[in-house]
Amino acid sequence: MLRNGRLFGHRVETGFPDLPILEVSLRTCVRVRDMENLKRKQVMSQKEKYKRAAKGDIAYNMMRMWQGAVGPAPVDGLVSPAYVVVKPYDEANSSYYSYLFRTSAYMQEVNKFSRGIVADRNRLYWESFKQMPSLVPPRPEQDQIVAYLRAQDAHIARFIKAKRELIKRLTEQKLRIIDHAVTRGLDSSVALKPSGIEWLGEMPEHWDASRLKYCVSRIHAGGTPDTGVDGYWSDSSDGIPWLLIADVTRADRVANSTKRLTQAGLESKRLAVVPAGAVLYTMYASIGKAAILGIDSAINQAILGLEPKSNLLEAEFLFFWLRSLERHIKNLASTSTQANLNAAKVKALPMFLPPLEEQKLICAWIKSECRIFDDAIARTEEEIKLIREYRDRLIADVVTGQVDVQGWQPSPDDVVAEEDLAALAGDEEIETEGEDNDGEE
């Protein structure tokens, strides 16, 4: 056992604006940031302030280390001032320590050594990090542990990739069912007429065609509260649910949230509360994703809340209609940097309007026909969850010596490709709040 200050030195180097920007990922450690994300381009004017992380250095987010926001830099790059960069000495394999630092037991220790005004704003500064004790296997054994875990990661990543491909195929079949039902109805003998929209084709003769803006009573725009202000975020279940894109894309119905706002946080940007029963729709990143809102919530700026006119449109039919548009939506979005929507484009979306009673029948039929696909998708997602839990347990056992891998030899199937390991990233990516600030209290 040694303190981290005996294993790592502190690197504070700025003034390298030509290096790529790095960011944290819960599952895949530190990676090169995707600069196609328009929102992320806002920080480019501050690159002179960013810290250099040399290849092999460990970088961690001071505010999110307790979640596993730590890893070795894959290339020379830049990290936010909200990060700490440490360079390993000869006796430390940074990949071994990246695995160790992300075990649940070590992250509990991080909480003990972090300090701040409130728990959710705690930071792990270098002065505290260097005092933390860590296991120190002999360097050859560290290297062996890393080789073994990378090989296991490759197998697990290939498993996850195959399961995701299965989910993709099941979802495609489900969307075909939805698309046919909301554009053609359930009665194949009904006469059709031109819809007036070339890419949608014909529609049942007794249906009406409209635009979404004429079918909703209200469109709620989201916003972003001031993340750095204490008192804006609630640790209590009594807080106001705050929804992100991930909450919308995770399920067809949003019934809870990972974050909650206080009333002061809600009022900081005059955010409206979207009522339960509205339909949520994403405009950035994962564009064109819809979900029905099951709880009164505030939403961020990447989401719209749509309240259907009760005399024209069922919320469930609107949800299925927006799902059917997924295959077309990128053609309707702005692509100057990445595919994005805005409120004007969403308002202009075409809308087919069957009679209300027929909308209800269509929705009931879709749910019945898609149940088999929903069940298969849920089972597959559970398998991915279980293999992730197995991975976490395996890493913890190996890096702490509970499982001895000194005699392990790689087989031909243990070849590790970086593109395979990318599949370890997934739905549980953390929100790296504070990455783009200055790291100060």
UniProtKB/TrEMBL annotation:
Pfam families (alphabetical): Methylase_S (PF01420)
Gene Ontology BP terms: DNA restriction-modification system
Record SUPFAM superfamilies: DNA methylase specificity domain
Domain of life the protein comes from: Bacteria
Keywords in alphabetical order: DNA-binding, Endonuclease, Hydrolase, Nuclease, Restriction system
GO MF term list: DNA binding; endonuclease activity
InterPro entries reported in the protein's UniProt record: Restrct_endonuc_typeI_TRD, Restrct_endonuc_typeI_TRD_sf, Type-I_RE_S_subunit
Keyword Nuclease listed: yes
Type I restriction modification DNA specificity domain location: 256-368
Family: Belongs to the type-I restriction system S methylase family.
PANTHER family linked to this entry: TYPE I RESTRICTION ENZYME ECOKI SPECIFICITY SUBUNIT (PTHR43140:SF1), TYPE-1 RESTRICTION ENZYME ECOKI SPECIFICITY PROTEIN (PTHR43140)
Protein name: Restriction endonuclease subunit S
Organism: Aquariibacter lacus
